[in-house]
Design a protein that fits this description.
alpha/beta, binds BIS(adenosine)-5'-pentaphosphate, Rossmann fold, 5-stranded parallel β-sheet
Amino acid sequence: METQTPSAVGVKTKQRVAGPIIMLGPPGAGKGTQAKLLAETLGIPQISTGDILRDNVARKTELGVKAKDVMGRGDLVPDELVCDMVADRLLQADCARGFILDGFPRTVRQAEWLDAQLGKMREGKDEEGQKACAAPVVIALVVEYNHLLQRLTGRRSCPTCGLIYNVYYQPPKVPGICDVDGTTLVARPDDAEEVIAERLKAYERLTLPLVAYYGERGRLIEVNGDQSVEAVTAQMFRALENVNRM
Ligand code: AP5
């Protein structure tokens, strides 16, 4: 079978309505890494609730002040705050052909809210507009628990361009420096081992039930996240082609 690279696929997909895609998986599963590749290929935005929250923390906004300690402990930010934040983001013009939710929803209440919100967004829209906010396709990245710790403790990111590296699996050419713009790479405060343990517990308790939620609704695609980044991307793209999202 002929395999197309994401960039080759992207040439023909950037103009099409892709609709909502959700990246689901535990901390360190590779949601952000794969969401960026998907966003670039499909020409729709990656909406990372973690990134938006971290930006609010850095700017010391009202939301950031409320979220800071919760995130620092590895707990989830209250549903109401996150849902309001996502509602605002989905109104922006770049979501008109679809969007990739990275790290949202994370609780059953958030998933129910999203279903209702997408329903409201479809009201009064033409066929293309309705497709842009159709029922989401959910890509669940499955990664063995023991591998997550190494991925998270080894993660470094570029504060300028957002590129994600890993000192073990995806090191930059010069240690500690972004290949693209030369910025010094940083580690996330919540990638400390004791906080990672709490994040993984929160995932098991509050987010894992979403696998059943979306599975029962026939929207779940499981992808083996325990492969190279390129192999995960290829499996994800094949799965999306099958549901006609590309
Ligand atoms: P968030 O930023 O969403 O963090 P997370 O879900 O814990 O996920 P991560 O960003 O840690 O991992 P990832 O799956 O994106 O992996 P990545 O691609 O970076 O949330 C942070 C906090 O914000 C939460 O704890 C919570 O407090 C709050 N929050 C956010 N959303 C919320 C919500 N909806 N409700 C309530 N609270 C919310 O990859 C990880 C590493 O692995 C990288 O170094 C990467 O290079 C490497 N890697 C990736 N793929 C591979 C591969 N295939 N092989 C080897 N290495 C790989």
